[in-house]
Every structure is written in structure tokens, then in C-alpha cells.
Amino acid sequence: MRTAFWISILWSLGQWGLGSTMLPPLKFLDDFVQEHSLLGTVLYIPLSKFSNDIIPYRKQARTKVMKVVDMDNPKIRKQNRQNIVDLQVVLDLNSSVSFLADMIGSQTNNDYWLIGVTGMNIPVIKSILDTFAMVLDDQIYLYDIQDTRIILYEAYKVHATKKARFQRIGYWSTSERLQIQNDEIWQRRADLEGIEFKIATLYSPPYLTAKIPINQSDSGAPGSYAMAGMFADVFLNLKEIMNFTFVVTKPEDEQWGAVNSDGITWSGMVGMLQNKEIDMGMNVNKN
Ligand SMILES: *[C@@H]1O[C@H](CO)[C@@H](O)[C@H](O)[C@H]1NC(C)=O
Ligand SMILES: *[C@@H]1O[C@H](CO)[C@@H](O)[C@H](O)[C@H]1NC(C)=O
Ligand SMILES: *[C@@H]1O[C@H](CO)[C@@H](O)[C@H](O)[C@H]1NC(C)=O
């Protein structure tokens, strides 16, 4: 089994050159799908470039846990998008940049992507990833097929204005299967790179007991405040653990927020969230 796999890889290399057409082993895909509690796999490939080595994947496709989609055919690839509980696999980042930019930039859910980067330099991978519209909770994984292992990475952005994070998370081998060093995603992504959040709060003891204007002589005017209280304590700890900063403001109307008469916009902190004036609102509704 193992020999057969490596022979087929060598065969692919000879036939098509490194990178662009290497098929990941079915067992690797299965293990990845199981680890992330997904249902199946959609394999996007330029079908015209494949012959015999795609046969096992085609066979698997009959079981309905795998779908093979021809990337050469734009209509077909659009139709097949997408069941968010499937793993979407693309064999080669370098030759699929516009396809991926389109798919990742337009996703409304966190689709799971597994993208081949075999044979590519890390600076090149990073410069391509920088151009993608990625966010903090994206599920974008990359794999590099090496001699005896497949190295697994993840990619995301802390913020649209930041460069892509590309970090190694583990590996897969035929004997050890999937080994992820730290499988808690929010521990892996805990460093928010000093990003500054805008936060609005309202006085609500004991959770938020004080909003102290940072510039005392501006007391009372909307602006930046320091916080105190139980929520503030948690938040100040998170700030240290997760490497972010924040500025606190308050809603001009001092309200939590309600739907305005137009039925669409909101007042208060909810309205500030809606208008993207703040990243978070913090308050407790005392009923
Ligand atoms: C990546 O693609 C570019 C052209 O799109 C090509 O010049 C380059 O050789 C490719 N690099 C790799 C590592 O495949
Ligand atoms: C916080 O983020 C900044 C900016 O990316 C970085 O320079 C710094 O090393 C980070 N600090 C910690 C403790 O991770
Ligand atoms: C505080 O506000 C006053 C009046 O607006 C201003 O003159 C002063 O420079 C401010 N101080 C700081 C430290 O921002």
C-alpha cells in the first residue's frame, strides 16, 4: 500500500513535474476530514492533466464522500460549490491563485480548504497568501508533500490590514497518521499582533463599575475611557494573553440599543456595531 503510494508520486513527478499535479494520499484526506468532523471531500483538479492516478479518487467518489471537480470547467466548479461540511481540496496554490482568491474572497461561511504548496518556497507562499481576503477564523490549511511526511500548515489574517499568518501545525505520515502539535485552534491563533479594538461600554455594576475618562479634563465628553469591574478585569487579562490593545468609547445616547423607526438601523451600542464604529460592545442588561 505504502510502496504503491510512493511509486505513484514518483510517477506523477516524472510525468508532470513537481508541485502542480501531486495528488494527496486518500488516507491523508480521510484523516483530515475525520479530525475536523467534516463529511466529505471536494477535490478540485485540472482533469485534463490526469489519467490513471485519479482512478482511486474516482472510485472513492462513488461512495459520495468525495467529489472530483474539473477545475478547467468554470461552470462545473461553480455548481459544486459548496457544502460547508466538506473539505475543499486544491492541489497547487501557485497555479490556482485566481481561483482561490475568488473562492476565499467570496465565502460567507468558514469553508475548510486544504491547498497543496509542494515544492514552493515559503516567501512565495506568503506573498500569495497576503493577497487573499482571509480573516481570523478562516479554516485554510496547506500541505507540503515531502519524502516521508506531509507537512501541514495553516493560514489566516488577524485583520485585513495585516499580513497573512502562515504557520506549521503538524504533519501526516502513513505510520503516524495525522499529528497536530496543538489542536486547539484558538491557542494557536492567540497572538492578535497588537491590533487595536474599538470598544463601547455602558455603566453596569458589578460588571462595569467605572469608565474613567483617560484625559480627566475632558470628563464627560465622548472619547477614550479606562474600564473597571468584573468584565474589565477579564478583558484586561485577555489583552495581555492575546496581544491586543483597545480604546473605550461610549454610545452618545448612552443606550444599549433598539431598532429605529426605519426597522433597519439601531441606536446605541448595537448601532455602533452595525455602523462598524466599534468592534465590540460591552454591557449587561439589568432586567
Ligand atoms: C509559480 O507560477 C509562476 C507563474 O504563474 C511560475 O513562473 C513559477 O515558476 C511557479 N513556481 C512554482 C514553484 O511552481
Ligand atoms: C504582539 O504583536 C506585535 C506586533 O505583531 C509583536 O511585535 C509582539 O512581539 C507581540 N507580542 C507578543 C507578546 O507576542
Ligand atoms: C487633555 O485635554 C486638554 C483639553 O482638551 C488638552 O489641552 C490636553 O492636551 C489633553 N491632555 C492629554 C494628555 O491628552
How are the secondary structure elements laid out?
Elements: H1 2-16, H2 26-35, E1 40-45, H3 55-61, E2 66-70, H4 74-79, E3 86-90, H5 97-105, E4 112-116, H6 122-130, E5 139-145, E6 150-156, E7 165-173, E8 177-180, H7 185-188, E9 195-201, E10 210-213, E11 225-228, H8 230-242, E12 244-249, H9 268-274, E13 280-282
Parallel strand pairs: 1-2, 1-3, 3-4, 4-5, 9-12, 9-13
Antiparallel strand pairs: 5-6, 6-7, 7-8, 10-11
One 2-acetamido-2-deoxy-beta-D-glucopyranose binds next to loops.
Structure description:
The protein is an alpha/beta fold. The protein folds into two domains: 184 residues, no CATH class; 87 residues, D-Maltodextrin-Binding Protein, domain 2 (3-Layer(aba) Sandwich). Helix content is 28%, strand content 25%. The strands form three sheets. It has an eight-stranded mixed sheet with strand order 2-1-3-4-5-6-7-8. The protein starts with a helix and ends in a 5-residue tail after the last strand. Bound molecules: 2-acetamido-2-deoxy-beta-D-glucopyranose (3 copies).
How much helix, percentage-wise, in residues? 25-40%
Structural class computed from helices and strand pairing: alpha/beta
Radius of gyration from CA coordinates: 24 Å
Order of helices and strands: HHEHEHEHEHEEEEHEEEHEHE
Name every ligand kind in the structure. Answer: 2-acetamido-2-deoxy-beta-D-glucopyranose
Strand content: 25-35%
Give the helix tally: 9
Query: What's the total count of β strands?
Result: 13
Write down the overall geometry.
Answer: elongated
- Number of folding domains? 2
User: What gap, in angstroms, lies between the N and C termini?
Assistant: 64 Å
Stretches where pLDDT is under 50 for at least 5 consecutive residues are 1-20, 216-222
Describe the biggest sheet?
8 strands, mixed
Strand order of the largest sheet: 2-1-3-4-5-6-7-8
Nearest-integer average pLDDT: 82
Main location: membrane
Protein name: Ionotropic glutamate receptor L-glutamate and glycine-binding domain-containing protein
Signal peptide: 1-19
GO molecular function, one term: ligand-gated monoatomic ion channel activity
